[in-house]
Amino acid sequence: MINWKDSYDIGVEKIDCQHRQLLVKLNEFFEACTNQQGKEKIEETLKFLKEYTLEHFSDEEHLMQDIDFPELAEHRKTHAEFVKTVLDLEESIKSKGVSVLSTIKLNRTLTDWLLNHINKCDKLIGQCIASKGNQAV
């Protein structure tokens, strides 16, 4: 279980709300895995991630364009890699079925995304906005 920390906020309510929503789903998946129900929860979690990434990444990338974020291209690439990881995992589950390995992989992917991407990369968006005096949002 990962608790939301204020330090994860980037200072844009819409994006921060979406990030918190992801953490809720991540924790639901963690809890299911802890209760030996990860296999049952994985398809629901992947479905959520596909929908979430479409909306969230679009919102985030539009924001980055609006603020002339200098690392937009790299950030887009990272988003695309995450989507590919989710789709590859979904395809693997469709062809091979749900396994302990697939639940572990999703667990690691989501944890890494939260701790590294949101807490490090997305924080740069907030810093960029703050450096411009919050005029961009």
UniProtKB/TrEMBL annotation:
Record InterPro entries: Haemerythrin_Fe_BS (IPR016131), Hemerythrin (IPR050669), Hemerythrin-like (IPR012312), Hemerythrin-like_sf (IPR035938), Hemerythrin_metal-bd (IPR012827)
Keyword terms: Iron, Metal-binding
Residues of the Hemerythrin-like domain: 11-125
Pfam families noted in UniProt: Hemerythrin
Gene Ontology molecular-function annotations: metal ion binding
Highest taxon of the lineage: Bacteria
Signal peptide positions on this chain: none
Family: Belongs to the hemerythrin family.
NCBIfam families from the UniProt entry: bact_hemeryth, hemeryth_dom
Protein name as catalogued: Hemerythrin-like domain-containing protein
Biological source species: Paenibacillus riograndensis SBR5
